[in-house]
TrEMBL record:
GO terms for cellular component: membrane. This is Heparan-sulfate 6-O-sulfotransferase. SUPFAM superfamilies: P-loop containing nucleoside triphosphate hydrolases. InterPro entries: Heparan_SO4-6-sulfoTrfase, P-loop_NTPase, Sulfotransferase. Its EC number is 2.8.2.-. Its main location: membrane. Belongs to the sulfotransferase 6 family. GO terms for molecular function: heparan sulfate 6-sulfotransferase activity.
Length: 368
């Protein structure tokens, strides 16, 4: 049933309302009359197809821009006045105590219950939080290359970047390495992104725009991820241009000493890698998902004990993860439907990523 609703919902924003009703209807009708229901669905499908054909052939883009009258942006704002602070400047987070009470944004539940969609034509922005060695590079490429969009991202062979613009104007809807680049720092974490993304968009689009941010990420089984990072560092990777921005400044050399003397840690042995107390690989996923302002950023003496610091970080990471519009587990992408991203997988696979709503449904499939 969930799968079916994915199929149906991605057809088109306007028709999806109608069709989603039909799915709800199905639950009620099934016991009474399957045939009558089938006819009803066929009728809906027919209506939808006719509509799509009408829109695509007889209607210019401008005359028929599908700006929904659905409860979208303005109504959303009225309902959730406090939830806009995700992606806002750090001033909102700089006081750890304020930060503790700040609302991390839209959760799965909000998104499902409020029945809203990612609105390409409005001011919705998808932000990909890319943690090292979680398979984010290929996922990020899928995001710019393989989504079935009204206006696909335009990518150039030579450059690594793509333009992922909204259908009706040249504004980015995707914040990621292959669209906007590392505008908030190399592999920016939750703390960096939420204090920077909105300001970056303000630079290009003006600060009068209120945007909704949909954060997405991938997580990986931590030991595999750790070993993968170890091998990557052994081969010479450093990510030394990461900013580790928090509380309005970058972490200092004292707060975050390097584990190696030379330019890189090439050839490091596993034991040595594990023994370095400043090695960010140790709790990378937790640290990158958490609101570091809560623990005094990279100042490790801010919290009474390391145990306390770790507990707060983990709790914050869990809360932020729950507040994301979508996350996937690297190991389960193949068996859970994220393969619908790949063109190579064939057209019979549901084109399921035209809106974040379907992202969420895949997320749910993932959980079972
Ligand atoms: C780190 O935190 C401690 C405890 O709050 C504080 O005394 C110290 O000044 C902080 N260090 C820096 C560099 O801010």
């Amino acid at each position: 049933m969930a799968k079916r609703s994915v199929e149906v919902q991605v057809l088109d924003s306007d028709f999806s309302v109608l069709l989603r009703e039909s799915v709800t209807y199905e639950f009620k009708m099934e016991s009474r009359s399957k045939n009558r229901f089938r006819n009803f669905v066929m009728f809906c499908m027919f209506l939808a197809l006719t509509g799509i054909i009408y829109f695509s052939y007889f209607c210019s883009d401008e005359a028929c821009a599908l700006t929904p009258q659905k409860p979208s942006w303005s109504e959303f704002n009225g309902k959730f006045p406090v939830q806009d602070n995700l992606g806002k400047p750090l001033s909102l987070h700089s006081n750890p105590y304020n930060s503790r009470s700040s609302n991390p944004g839209l959760s799965y539940d909000d998104v499902l219950n409020e029945n809203f969609q990612f609105d390409m034509n409005a001011h919705d922005v998808m932000v990909f939080l890319h943690i090292q060695k979680t398979g984010g590079t290929s996922f990020g490429k899928h995001l710019v290359q393989d989504l079935d969009l009204q206006r696909p991202c335009s990518c150039q062979r030579k450059r690594k970047r793509c333009y992922c613009f909204r259908p009706n104007r040249n504004e980015n809807w995707l914040f990621s390495r292959y669209s906007t680049g590392w505008k908030c720092g190399l592999h920016a974490d939750w703390t960096e992104l939420t204090s920077c993304v909105d300001a970056e968009f303000d630079k290009n689009e003006g600060d009068s725009v209120k945007r909704r941010y949909f954060y997405i990420t991938l997580l990986r089984e931590p030991i595999s991820r750790y070993l993968s990072e170890f091998r990557h560092v052994q081969r010479g990777a450093t990510w030394k241009h990461s900013r580790h921005w928090c509380g309005g400044r970058e972490a200092t050399k004292v707060e975050l000493p390097l584990c190696y003397d030379q330019d890189s840690w090439t050839g490091v042995k596993l034991q040595e890698f594990m023994d370095c107390p400043y090695n960010l690989a140790h709790n990378r996923q937790t640290r990158m998902m958490s609101d570091l302002a809560l623990v005094g950023c990279y100042n490790t003496t801010y919290m009474a004990t390391p145990g306390e610091r770790n507990r707060v970080m983990l709790a914050s990471a869990k809360r932020n993860l729950a507040a994301m519009a979508f996350f996937s587990l690297t190991e389960f992408q193949k068996s859970s439907g994220v393969q619908c991203l790949g063109k190579s997988e064939g057209q019979e696979i549901v084109k399921c990523l035209t809106n974040v709503k379907s992202f969420i449904l895949i997320g749910i499939v993932l959980q079972y």
